[in-house]
């Protein structure tokens, strides 16, 4: 199922687990509800989730094959993380100057610093486009372990893959999930 619907019992169980295991800082005031980005999706089924949130991946790993354990871990982590508070980031610019002599050169690093881990505590850190910088105070000394000079060029938009084409069709309201395969096949 591609549904995002969760039963009230499952939401209550997840919220209780989060409060007990991680504390109230990780629990939003109200349950998080998610709608489908696909307007024609049917919400008749509940999302795939653990039957009991207390059955953690570590607790059931001995009864599963390694592949099953990884899949269950993914399902369990996403289920619990979807009911946690968002992470908080500080947008940061760090400027480096030599301290031993004045050269006039300033190296700048743009990125973000994680202020509160929120749902990442369970889901793990994402591999995003924006670099994650260490937390530094003003006038902290640091030594570079590498400096890469890159020249950036503009590039044309990427070609559509089957997945990105289906996503574009959904966003434009063209077709329905049952017709996407036929549309992609015609285009190819």
* Rg calculated over all Cα atoms: 23 Å
What level of helicity do the residues show?
25-40%
Largest sheet: 2 strands, antiparallel
Principal-axes geometry comes out as: extended
**Strand residue content:** 5-15%
Keywords for this structure?
31% helix; alpha+beta; two-stranded antiparallel ribbon; single chain; 188 residues
Describe the overall structure.
- The radius of gyration is 23 Å and the shape is extended.
- With about 190 residues, the protein is an alpha+beta fold.
- It is about 30% helix and about 10% strand.
- The longest helix has 16 residues, at about 65-80.
- A two-stranded antiparallel ribbon has the order 1-2.
- It has six helices and two strands, in the order αααββααα.
Quick recap:
Helices cover 31% and strands 10% of the residues.
């Amino acid at each position: 199922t591609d549904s995002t619907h969760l039963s009230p019992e499952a939401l209550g169980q997840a919220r209780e687990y989060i409060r007990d295991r991680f504390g109230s800082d990780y629990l939003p005031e109200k349950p998080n509800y998610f709608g489908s980005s696909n307007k024609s999706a049917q919400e008749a089924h509940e999302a795939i989730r653990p039957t009991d949130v207390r059955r953690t991946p570590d607790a059931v790993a001995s009864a599963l094959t390694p592949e099953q354990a990884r899949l269950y871990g993914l399902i369990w982590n996403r289920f619990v993380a979807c009911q946690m508070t968002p992470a908080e980031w500080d947008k940061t610019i760090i400027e480096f100057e030599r301290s031993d002599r004045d050269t006039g050169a300033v190296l700048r690093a743009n990125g973000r610093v994680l202020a509160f881990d929120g749902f990442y505590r369970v889901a793990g850190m994402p591999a995003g486009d924006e670099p994650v910088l260490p937390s530094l105070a003003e006038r902290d000394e640091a030594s570079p372990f590498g400096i890469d000079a890159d020249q950036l060029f503009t590039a044309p938009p990427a070609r559509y893959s089957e997945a990105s084409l289906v996503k574009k069709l959904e966003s434009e309201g063209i077709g329905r999930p049952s017709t996407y395969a036929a549309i992609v096949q015609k285009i190819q």
